[in-house]
Design brief:
Layout: E1 2-4, H1 10-17, E2 23-25, H2 29-38, E3 44-45
């Protein structure tokens, strides 16, 4: 899961519960898109 710094930290707790790693990016879809295009993450939230 990738999320921008402006997204709630509750997402971190939810992902931790299910063992899903979280990548934090600066604000802006271009940063999330970079993570998605790399194949390292399957979902992104801003």
């Amino acid at each position: 899961m990738a999320r921008s710094v402006s997204t709630t930290s509750k997402l971190d707790k939810l992902c931790a519960r299910y063992g899903i790693p979280v990548v934090e990016t600066p604000v802006g879809f271009k940063y999330l898109a970079k993570e998605l295009m790399s194949g390292a993450v399957l979902a992104a939230e801003e």
